[in-house]
Amino acid sequence: MANRPILITIIAVLTIIVAVLFILAGLGIAIGSEFLDMGEEFADIINLGVLAGVGLLILGLIMFVVGYGFLKGWTLFWYIGVIIYAFVVIFAIYTIIIGQPISVIELVVALVILFYLSRPKVREFFKV
Fold it and tell me: Is the pTM of this model over 0.85?
C-alpha cells in the first residue's frame, strides 16, 4: 500500500471531527425535541425536530465511516467521498443562489477537496 498523503490524513481527521459534532447535534436535537412540552399545537414542530436530529445523526455516522475509510485508504470510500463532496458543491451553489454568500467558503473547500482527490498520488493511495 502506498503511503497515506498528509492531506488525506487531515481531511479524514476533519471529517471525523465534523461527524462527531453532527452526531452530538443530532442526538441533542432529537432527544431535546422529545422532552419539549409545548402542547398539541406544536406537535408537528417537535416531530420535525426529532426528524432533523435523526437525520443529523445518520449523516454524522456516514461521515464518521467515510473519515475512517479515508484513513485506511479503502477504495469504496474514495468514491463515496467524491459523491459527498460533489453534493456539497451542488448544495453550496444552491445556497449561494438563494442569497447565502457565506457558502462561497463551503464551495471553495469542497472544490479543493474534489481536486485533491483526483490527484494521481491520492488515487494511487486509494487504488483508483
Answer: no
What total of structural domains would you count in the chain?
1
pLDDT tier, 98 (very low <50, low <70, confident <90, very high otherwise): very high
Give the contacts of 7 (CB within 8 A, at least 6 positions apart). Answer: 116, 122
Q: Residue 45: pLDDT above 70?
A: no
Helix (H) or strand (E) holding 16: helix 6-35
Q: Indicate whether 1 belongs to any domain.
A: no
Helix (H, G, I), strand (E, B) or coil at 105: helix
First-last CA distance in the chain = 12
Lookup result for grid cell 451553489: 93
Q: Could you tell me if residue 94 is inside a domain?
A: yes
Does 32 reside within a domain?
yes
- State how far the Cα of 80 lies from the Cα of 90, in Å rounded to an integer: 15
Say how far apart CA 70 and CA 73 lie, in whole Å: 5
Q: Please state the rounded mean pLDDT for residues 98-115.
A: 93
Kindly report, residue by residue over 65-86, the tens digit of the pLDDT. Answer: 999 999 999 999 999 999 989 9
Residue count (the chain)? 128
